[in-house]
Amino acid sequence: MSQATISTSSAQAKDVAGLSLIAAHSHISGLGLDDNLKPKESAQGMVGQVKARRAAGLILKLVQAGQIAGRAVLIAGPPSTGKTAIAMGLSQSLGEGVPFTAIAGSEIFSLDLSKTESLTQAFRKSIGIKIKEETEIIEGEVVEIQIDRSITGGHKQGKLTIKTTDMETIYELGNKMIEGLTKEKVLAGDVISIDKASGKITKLGKSFTRARDYDAMGPETKFVQCPEGELQKRKEVVHTVSLHEIDVINSRQQGFLALFSGDTGEIRSEVRDQINTKVAEWKEEGKAEIVPGVLFIDEVHMLDIESFSFINRALEDDFAPIVVMATNRGVSQTRGTNYKSPHGVPMDLLDRSIIIHTSNYSADELRTILSIRANEEEAELNADALALLTKIGQETSLRYAANLIAVAQQIALKRRAATIDLPDVKRAYTLFLDSERSVQFVNENSKSFIDDEGNVNLGTNGNAKDDDKMQTD
Ligand SMILES: Nc1ncnc2c1ncn2[C@@H]1O[C@H](COP(=O)(O)OP(=O)(O)OP(=O)(O)O)[C@@H](O)[C@H]1O
Ligand SMILES: [Mg+2]
């Protein structure tokens, strides 16, 4: 597409990536901060982890100020200490119009896209462009709608009489407008707004002058004043699209259809260059504002050295989001190298990052989180069951304890009990191993598992109990 016609039509890219991260965090609706960004002990589904949440609150402030971009934040801490949860809370607090993109480090290794292309797309999804546009609208109270159907039933024609307090006009209606009016169930007395460019009809409410005409109406009926002045008005509308959406819409091979399939393929760098230039122009002219959002890379230790160096570079770009990363690794090897570094993140990126730590929960915090989770899963726990789950959470992990809730609920349902009791949790605990017991089992029965060389000792191993034995033909 030529430079002059870069389109920003607000088609919505279907974002499936990251969906799988959400369910476990569905109880979280924000960071749980007060007006001074101080964490409340338990709010918006968030419990404890106060230091990390306060730090996340400051990042929220940075993002909302919109001036600061190209920073990297690393959330580091032991497994199931709420790193992903905090990122989800952050995304919920950002508010509309600030893009948030979540990917897992391993997602960039796909056969369809190169690593750098995946990362570029993730970066550009996290930059919002707020575009101001003037559109012409017709806004007024409907006086009469008259629709003539032709005898053959095909072509429809009609007239719309619409007024403001100062004037009244009759518009001829085509098929498309008639459909729109029918779909919106527009009646005489409604105040409507019609976008002249797209023909989109919006019902604003019912006119006050007609309020007496209705003796039966729902509580949701909204009354508005009949508009004053001219019927046709110019109105400024603001919509936010991500740089990535603009890329896709304007890339010649893909076109906007790719936004529906999500299959965008590689986007040529010339397209991106053109768009960058254009967006910079719009910014100069005051037509657009750049909104740096947040790119969250979970399990960042899964990235390799090339990806890390790409991120280093991308953070210095003109259009850079705030990059939040999370990892549970200590000193570990960076993929694609044979040297070790803290959190598996190379020193040069670590050096540019501010680091937030999460730590293990106290019993009280665990108990509160577990009961919030039970609530979320619509499971009822009695006090004993909750106490045991809390103890399990302390000795294994929060995630394992939380996972037992659903299982224990099924066990309780089987005995037709509405509330989960102590024996249900016990039973769930014996049926499903936590990682530690599983490791123990593997060690005790190492001979009956297939080893790295592909050797397996079927049946003859004295260690395995009868029902654990593998069957030989
Ligand atoms: N402070 C908290 N308040 C409420 N829920 C929490 C909190 N911390 C963790 N959770 C919940 O506990 C579960 C595990 O936490 P989460 O997935 O965030 O851990 P993580 O630190 O990302 O672990 P990992 O390193 O294994 O990825 C999730 O369901 C999460 O929503
Ligand atoms: Mg996580």
UniProtKB/TrEMBL annotation:
Domain AAA+ ATPase, first and last residues per copy: 69-362
For this protein, the Enzyme Commission number is: 3.6.4.12
Where do the segments described as Disordered lie?
452-473
Composition bias of kind Basic and acidic residues appears in: 464-473
| Pfam families per record | TIP49, TIP49_C
Gene Ontology molecular functions: 3'-5' DNA helicase activity; 5'-3' DNA helicase activity; ATP binding; ATP hydrolysis activity
Q: What does the record give as the reaction this protein catalyses?
A: ATP + H2O = ADP + phosphate + H(+)
What GO CC terms are in its UniProt record? Ino80 complex; R2TP complex; Swr1 complex
Q: Which GO terms describe its biological process?
A: box C/D snoRNP assembly; chromatin remodeling; DNA repair; regulation of transcription by RNA polymerase II; rRNA processing
Entry's InterPro entries? AAA+_ATPase, P-loop_NTPase, RuvB-like, RuvB-like_C, RuvBL1/2_DNA/RNA_bd_dom, TIP49_P-loop
Q: SMART domains, alphabetically?
A: AAA
What are the alphabetically sorted keywords of the record? Activator, ATP-binding, Chromatin regulator, DNA damage, DNA repair, Helicase, Hydrolase, Nucleotide-binding, Nucleus, Transcription, Transcription regulation
List where in the cell it is found: Nucleus
PANTHER family, per the entry: RUVB-RELATED REPTIN AND PONTIN (PTHR11093)
* Membership in a protein family: Belongs to the RuvB family.
Query: Its biological function?
Result: DNA helicase participates in several chromatin remodeling complexes, including the SWR1 and the INO80 complexes.
List the protein's name: RuvB-like helicase
Taxonomic lineage from the root: Eukaryota, Fungi, Dikarya, Ascomycota, Saccharomycotina
